[in-house]
Amino acid sequence: MQAPTESPAFRTRFVLIQTSHAGNVGAAARAMKVMGFDDLVLVQPRWANVLRRQETIERASGANDVLDKARIVETLDEALDGMTHLCATAMTPRDFGPPTRAPREHFAQLVQSATPETGAQGVAFLFGSERFGMRNEDVYRCHTCLSIPTNPQFGSLNLGAALQVIAYEWRQALGAYPVQEATAPPVRADAAQVAGMLAHLEQALVAVDFLDPAAPKKLMPRLNALFNRAGLTQEEIHILRGVAKAMLETAEKARR
Amino acid sequence: MQAPTESPAFRTRFVLIQTSHAGNVGAAARAMKVMGFDDLVLVQPRWANVLRRQETIERASGANDVLDKARIVETLDEALDGMTHLCATAMTPRDFGPPTRAPREHFAQLVQSATPETGAQGVAFLFGSERFGMRNEDVYRCHTCLSIPTNPQFGSLNLGAALQVIAYEWRQALGAYPVQEATAPPVRADAAQVAGMLAHLEQALVAVDFLDPAAPKKLMPRLNALFNRAGLTQEEIHILRGVAKAMLETAEKARR
Predict the structure, then answer these.
(1) A161 with B164: CB under 8 angstroms?
(2) A176: chain B residues, CB-CB within 8 Å
C-alpha cells in the first residue's frame, strides 16, 4: 500500500533548534517517519555529529532515511528556506507574539484556507531546546504559536512526545492514513436469523429445565435485548445454534 | 487554574504489559500526567524495581506522583479490576479479534454513547511489550483494538509516543484543557481607522516621491488589500501612522 502523497498544497518541515539530547533527535526522526514526513533540519544542535550518534540511531529505530536526509545548519534563516508558514511550539507566555492556537483547530483552518490562489505553502514546525524553549526573536517571526492543550499543573511535554502529537495532528489534517482493519469485517446477522436462533435457544433452555414454559417470566426478551445490544454476527448465530443443539442432544440422552 | 475534573462517566487507566525498557515506563508516566491521568498499572515488567530505577525517574521528568501511585501486578486480571471497556493497542493483524478503530473516531463514539443509563465506565488502555506487542489472548478480551493511523511503510511507534497520542486523543474527547492564550488578545482596527491610516500613508508616499498623484496606478488599493489581509490591530495603526508622520517630517526637512 502506498503512503498518501503529501497534499500538493503543503510541504512540511520540522526544525529543531539547539537540541541537546541526541535521543530526542532520534525520537523526532521516528515520530516524523511514522506520520509520513521526512524533512528534518537541526539548527545548532549540541552535538555536531548528532545524526550519527549511537543514541540517536537507537531511538530513531529504523527511521535512518530521515536522519540521512537531515540537514544541520548554523542559523534559523538557513533552516527556513522555502517555508511560508511558521509554527512555533512554545509553552511559556510572552508579552507579545503570534496568536496561540491548539494544533487541531489551527491545522483545520490552515488546510481549509488552502486554495489554488494561495499557492503552495511550506509549513515549518519549530521546536526550541529542551531546557530553554524558543528564543523570543524566533517566536516573533512565526505566524502561529501552537500550544498542545495539557494539564495546567504539568505541561511538561517531552520534545519527542510533543513532535509526535504535532506530526500526528498535521497528518490527520492533511488526510489521515486509513486504519488498517486487522480482521475481516464481520457479517451481521439480520433480525430473522436472531429470532430463529432465539427460538432454537428457547427450546434448549426448556430441555435443560432452566426455562419453565408455564412461567417464562421475561427470560427470552432479556436474552433478546442482550443479543441485540451485542449486535450478533452470522458466525455467532452458528455458534449459539450449535450450543442450543448440543443442549437439546444432551437433554435427549438424559431422558433415555 | 484547576485541572478539569475527569468526566464522572469515565475512569481511565493505562496498563503496560511486560514492558522491558525502564525509560518507557517513565515516559508513560510523564505522557499521562501531561494529559491529566494518573492511574498506571504494570503487568510483569521486566524490572521488579522499575518504578524506582534512575532511567524511569529521569524520563518521568517530574511525574513522580504517577510513579508513586502506580501498581505492579502479576496478571492482567489483577490490572483490570473495575474496568469495563478495554482498548487494546495492537498493530499486527490477527485472524480474529475486536474491531480495529482509529482512536479519534472510537473515542468520539464512546463519549457520545455514555448516558446516565449506561453507568460509569472504567476505560483501560492496554499496551503490550516493546518487542512482542500484545498476546492474542489479551487482545481477544478487549472491546476494541485501537490503531493509530501511521505510515503504512513505517508504523513503528515508540511505546511512549503511542501512549502520548492515545492520552492526548482521550483527553481531547473528554473535553480538552483550554489553550492558554500567551498574549493579550489584540484589538482589531475598524474600517475607518484603516482608511484614515491609508490616507495618512498616501500623503507620506507622495511626500517622499514614491507615489505620483498624477499617475497613482493601483498603489493605494494594493496596500489596502495587503493590510486587509493582515487584519490590522489598533496598535499597528498607530505604528503605521507613526511611520507616515516620520516620512512627512523628513520630507519637510529635505525641502528646506
Answers:
(1) yes
(2) 102, 149
The CA distance from A34 to the nearest CA of chain B, in Å, is: 5
Domain A10-175 has CATH 3.40.1280.10: yes
Domain spans of chain B, in order of start? 10-175, 191-255
How many other CB atoms are there within 10 angstroms of residue A99's CB atom? 14
Q: Tell me the CATH architecture of domain B191-255.
A: Orthogonal Bundle (1.10)
pLDDT digits (tens, 9 = 90+) for B24-51: 999 999 999 999 999 999 999 999 999 9
Q: Which of A3, A31, A92 sits opposite B152 (nearest CB)?
A: A3
pLDDT at B118 over 60: yes
Sheet holding B71-73, edge to edge: B71-73, B40-43, B10-17, B121-127, B85-89, B144-146, B100-101
B177–A151 CB contact, under 8 Å: yes
Question: What mean pLDDT do residues B93-112 have?
Answer: 88
Residues in B closer than 8 angstroms to A148, CB to CB, are 168
Q: What is the reported pLDDT for A1?
A: 35
Q: Does A143 touch chain B (CB under 8 A)?
A: no
Quick one: what percent of chain B has pLDDT higher than 70?
95
